[in-house]
Design goal:
single chain
C-alpha cells in the first residue's frame, strides 16, 4: 500500500479495509510488537461498555431573565420562576429540550418548541 493514488476517500477506506490485518500485524520498526499486540496487551483492558443512553449534543447560551419571567430562544419564549427576574442564567439547548440553570442549579425545563413565535406555559418550573 505504498503511495497509492486514490481519487476518493471511499476508495482509500476500501483499500485500508482490504489490508487491515496486514497493517495491524506488521511489526513496529523502532519498538517491539505490533499494533495488534499493543492493543491486546496494553489497551484492551481499559475498554468500557458503552452507556445505555445515547449522548445528546447540547448548545449553551447565556441570557438575562426578562421582567415578564421569560427567556427568548430562537423566537420562542420559555418561562422561569419570578425569583430569577433580571438574573443572568445559562440555557442548555438540545433538539428536544430547553433547560435553564442559575448558578449551576436547574430552575426550569421545557420541551423545545419549533415554529411560530409564542410563549411556553409556566408549568415546567422546578421547585
Amino acid at each position: 500500500m505504498t503511495n497509492p493514488w486514490l481519487e476518493y476517500l471511499q476508495d482509500l477506506n476500501q483499500k485500508i479495509f482490504e489490508n487491515l490485518e496486514e497493517i495491524n500485524t506488521t511489526e513496529f520498526q523502532k519498538r517491539p510488537g505490533s499494533r495488534k499486540k499493543v492493543f491486546e496487551e496494553e489497551e484492551k483492558s481499559y475498554l468500557q461498555q458503552l452507556p445505555q443512553t445515547r449522548f445528546k449534543l447540547a448548545e449553551w447560551r447565556t441570557a438575562k431573565v426578562q421582567l415578564n419571567y421569560y427567556n427568548q430562544v430562537e423566537r420562542m419564549y420559555y418561562s422561569v420562576p419570578y425569583d430569577y427576574v433580571r438574573e443572568n442564567v445559562d440555557i442548555r439547548l438540545t433538539t428536544d429540550l430547553i433547560e435553564v440553570y442559575f448558578k449551576e442549579v436547574r430552575i426550569a425545563s421545557h420541551k423545545r418548541l419549533y415554529g411560530e413565535i409564542g410563549p411556553c406555559p409556566r408549568t415546567h418550573w422546578l421547585r
